[in-house]
Amino acid sequence: MLRSIQGRMLLLSAVAILAALGIAGWAIAGVLERVVTEGIDRRLDAEIALLASTVAPDGQVDRARLAARAGALEAGRGWTWRIDGPDGAIGSADPPRLRPGPVAAPPPPPGAPDAPRAPPAPIAEDAAAPQGLDGVDQAGRTIHARRLRLVTSRGTVSLLAAAPRAVVARPLREALTPLLVALAILAALLAAASLLQLRLGLRPLARMREQLAAIRAGRRERVDDDQPVELRGLADELNALAADRAAALATARQSAANLAHALKTPVATLALQLRDDPAKAAQVARIDATIRHHLARARAGATDTRASVRIAPAVDDLALAIGRLHAGRGITVTPQVAGDPVAAMDAQDFDELLGNLLDNAARHAATQVWIDVRVASGDARRIELTVSDDGPGIPAADRARVTEPGVRLDERGEGHGFGLAIVRELTELHGGSLTLGERDGGGLAASVTLPARHQSAGQA
Known about the structure:
Helix content: 40-55%
Oligomer: single chain
Number of helices: 9
Distance between the termini: 35 Å
Largest sheet: 7 strands, antiparallel
Number of strands: 14
């Protein structure tokens, strides 16, 4: 996953989303807890104020008044209150265990010289502000309490109001449950948005990759110029690279073709002149084989895998040219192309291949040459091209031999015996094959299979 740009960005987005939502949830939970706790504190402070209203300045509790207000102190199970003063404890019989508060100073002994004649009013030790405390009651339940200490003439009076911690936790749970569900839904939506954003953001890269594959396969010549700003420079460089490669291929192909044309005819002529001298003819054949071997390697290395040629127009042009060339002998060339097939080969190679087949057929035909082109039966990736004539044909025993360079069965006609050899070489160079057979009714039927190039909307 870390090797993928999309995977890395998704991981970073997931970490960022979880961290942000975690912080948001923690902050919201803290705010909710504080709000709920403050509400409970206000309720407990109200109870403490009610308890304080029953304490006299001398620390004595007005029990009648306390009994009249006891109903307001009964808030439910787990809610407790207690008054601890000089006269003892009133309220809950089992006080909760709390953190100990400050100890009040003992009152002065009765009859002291400086003792006041009238007891002062109760004074809170902590500036009349109840103190928040947490503890555990006798049942082991966690509680939240508020305590106020009053200083009276007879000592300290402690006022305590406590509530079970569950009254804080329960509304928190009720509030946090939908909050967590909402955060989970928000996380899912953000994750989906991040994934969608990444897919949309990386789509130009995927489209560029498809276009590069199409260039390599020969269905395009360049990537689209209309790219996002971040990819525009890359697209320009790729197009420049494709153009340089095409130029280099064209140069290499032209050099190989020039060398082939420069050497083919002289070597063929020399072979014919020395055919009566076996030793010299063998040396010439060796030279010819070496030249053809290296030319084939050079030509294979310079083959443009992106090239394609529409077969129907090329067949019509060559049929017309060969027909005119042999019109004096009454030769008629009849082409028949099924559909509009496209071969995955260079147009110059196709013209040379078909031209040699037509020229060979026209030179040996009596009156007719036929061209038949169709998609191979059962394999849409192959194209079958058959050139047949009504001539004498080639015996089955000699069909393999005539595709060798310089081999001629009819010494009376023109030519050097290289036509079918060139056809075989070009066909095999492009991954096809050459088959020589007999036409129904007599004559030669030369069939080649070629790779098909499927047109696409993105083809340049």
